[in-house]
Amino acid sequence: MSTPAHSHNRPTIAILGSGQLAKMMAQAATQLGCRVKVLENRPNPAPLADWEVTLGDWNDPAVLIPFAEGADVVTLENEFIESDALAELEVSGRLLFPPAACLAQVQDKLLQKEALAAANLPLAPFRPVSSPDEVVEAAERWGWPLVLKRRKLGYDGKGNATIRSAAEVAAAWQKLEGGAAALYVEQFCPFDRELAVMVTRARPDVSDEVVVYPVVDTLQRDHICHTVTAPARLPPEWMAAASLTAKRAVEAIGGVGSVGVELFLMSDGQILINEMAPRVHNSGHYSIEGCDCSQFENHIRAILGWPLGSPTLRAPAAAMVNLIGAGDGPAMPMGLRDALAVEGAQIHIYGKDRSMKGRKMGHVTALGPTPEKALAIAQRAAQRLRFG
Amino acid sequence: MSTPAHSHNRPTIAILGSGQLAKMMAQAATQLGCRVKVLENRPNPAPLADWEVTLGDWNDPAVLIPFAEGADVVTLENEFIESDALAELEVSGRLLFPPAACLAQVQDKLLQKEALAAANLPLAPFRPVSSPDEVVEAAERWGWPLVLKRRKLGYDGKGNATIRSAAEVAAAWQKLEGGAAALYVEQFCPFDRELAVMVTRARPDVSDEVVVYPVVDTLQRDHICHTVTAPARLPPEWMAAASLTAKRAVEAIGGVGSVGVELFLMSDGQILINEMAPRVHNSGHYSIEGCDCSQFENHIRAILGWPLGSPTLRAPAAAMVNLIGAGDGPAMPMGLRDALAVEGAQIHIYGKDRSMKGRKMGHVTALGPTPEKALAIAQRAAQRLRFG
Q1: Where are the domains of chain A?
Q2: How far, rounded to the nearest angstrom, does the alpha carbon of residue A104 sit from its chain's CA centroid?
Q3: How many beta carbons lie within 10 A of that of residue B325, not counting itself?
Q4: Would you say B364 and A309 are in contact if contact means Cβ atoms under 8 Å apart?
């Protein structure tokens, strides 16, 4: 454990990506006096367009390395940047959190599951498959249904196919471009509920501090996070098990900074890890108003080697509702005036260039005496808002 | 009462000034999806340097009018911009809040006091003076001590002189450059405590909504706000009187958006208005974490013609401690690591270019069960931080 040298200049944080996660990280960083610079690979005006944004391909070390010059630390808002390019950035002498090795392991979901399994963490059975026949073999062992998944670039339900019988294997294999794309198969999890836990882990070169946010209930709609309520409605011993599983999972993948852990809760109370997001995560947005120190501020603290803040809820409960684009349309929603009139609703509009069907355009958070009451406030505001 | 037309484009807010007040307004505006552009008249890197900043003289309509082009609304972080230039901006067709007429009245403290007196609001006796003899005449009526003040450009104790006897008049007159500068004189207020109230008033063309934040206790040190605790320790009827006085004072000066009202509490419970700041104000910084809707978000809502949010405290009490430069030094404080370890302390570092003696460099907020307990947390963190 060492303490990083502390220059008294303003730290500069280079963020790869300019979406809503980068925006909320930048807000937390600037509150603490840091400078922020941003690399974005798409030319559209983005939520961070008012900041200093460089346009360029973040998978190209010839772009990445000069961009990061002078930054005290580099971080990112999505886990799909090529880990080889990020490894070159590290070799050039730049600090990157999460580290390239962590991203390499998480990007490839098969490697992610293997790392978690190696740490004896609870998972649904999985195996790589290199032909449709191997999918059928897996079903012979575990039974139907199975979920066929791409090893890379899957998110929000993209890159997945649920297979209910041998007759459906060929179509699923084709849909996911098996052969061209590396796939794996997982036993279908007939889960009762989906939980999530945000964890912030300090830089291992600085301290062994880890903070675990409250376990939350999440509700997905069309594979996209729709609502989050904190704390989850769970018996204390299940809560403790979920927290501990999340903490160990973050350590197993070598996460640094804020990391999202998605969990399945089975009807018998068993908790299985669904997926890891090695970055700030939608299930932790409630922490901006809901917790003493948000997932965004704790991420900034962690990557700068600063002490972590408390993840304690400021109120008995908090809830968040995502604002999802209903179709193509402008960046500002209809109904904003009515939604702002809902007392206690904290409205976040990301300021994206356009609304598109299924695109995350903003969110609403509310605090309350119970998760249900907080959710009712957030939903009252969210229902008045419409993008596209 | 009308409803402003609502385009579904992102509103653009033009802010005159790039200091900490502009920064916190920009944070609130971007959370709500707005764009921000900034005009600054000094070439130093400022807290908003990461945003799009235009350098230029904001007292020059030839700079001001092209800068504000395309902005949906213009606002400001200090009341010293020449009201004539701002009036020209309004004539050019731009919406400005607070309006130029309000600023003209507040900039000249004699006009400010006259407007408040005309509304029958409680003030210490005052009168304009055009010679040292008139100061002595005032003392004959009110007794010593008196406070001699510049009508314009005074703040944080600058431009004031307390006079205890006729023998001190000449020196005070000279110090304040009486003759060259227009002065007025006020009866000295032997106040017990200093209170403040933030008020957010909607645009009168949109609604007659006014929200009043909790009355707070403020402690000044060397004429600079040092700590704020909310709510003030006051009997309910004094609290109600202070709230009502603040609300009426904001209406009397034609304030729009968030306005700070500084009050004196006399030993008999009488409340006198000390001074008005027609903008977001240091005594309301606690509202970022402390209230459902901060003074910054409510200012943005007000100037865009949106419904105002609730000023209710999120916890029983809140406290704020200013971080003041002890001398020349870098923008990041010594002791940050230790201060971040204080649980529940919300640290704001403004990111100014340099620390200077007496300069506001940041602040710390804490919530708690009582004002004293919240203050203890904020002070524990603030005491570990040193600028310069």
Answers
A1: 12-99, 125-187, 193-383
A2: 16
A3: 21
A4: no
Residue B143 CA to residue B164 CA, distance in Å, equals 9
Please give the Cα distance from A337 to B11 (Å, whole number): 13
pLDDT tens track for A62-92: 999 999 999 999 999 999 999 999 999 999 9
Tokens of B371: 């004002």
Facing residue for A344 by CB, picked from B34, B50, B310 = B310
Q: From CA A200, how far away is CA B205, in angstroms rounded? A: 47
Residue A170: its H or E element: helix A169-175
Residues of B in contact with A47 (CB under 8 A): 30
Q: For residue B177, what are the contacts with CB-CB under 8 A and spacing of at least 6?
A: none
Specify whether the CB–CB gap between B216 and B223 falls below 8 A: no
DSSP letter for each residue of B91-136: HTT--BSS-HHHHHHHHSHHHHHHHHHHTT-----EEEESSHHHHH
Helices A20-31 and A295-303, axial angle in degrees (round to 10):
70
Tens-digit pLDDT profile for residues A111-126: 999 999 999 999 999 9
- Do residues B345 and B364 lie in contact, with contact meaning Cβ atoms separated by under 8 Å? yes
How much is the pLDDT for A139? 96
**CATH code assigned to A193-383:** 3.30.470.20
| Nearest neighbour of B351 by CB, restricted to A10, A27, A315 | A10
Q: From CA A70, how far away is CA B85, in angstroms rounded?
A: 41
- Token representation of residue A237: 């011993």
Binary contact (B330, A8; C-beta < 8 A) = yes
CATH class of B12-99: alpha beta
Q: How far is A342 from chain B (nearest CA, A)?
A: 8
Assess if CATH 3.40.1190.20 describes domain A125-187: no
For residues A345 and B228, what is the distance between their CA atoms, to the nearest angstrom?
26
Q: Is there a contact between A368 and A348 (Cβ–Cβ < 8 Å)?
A: no
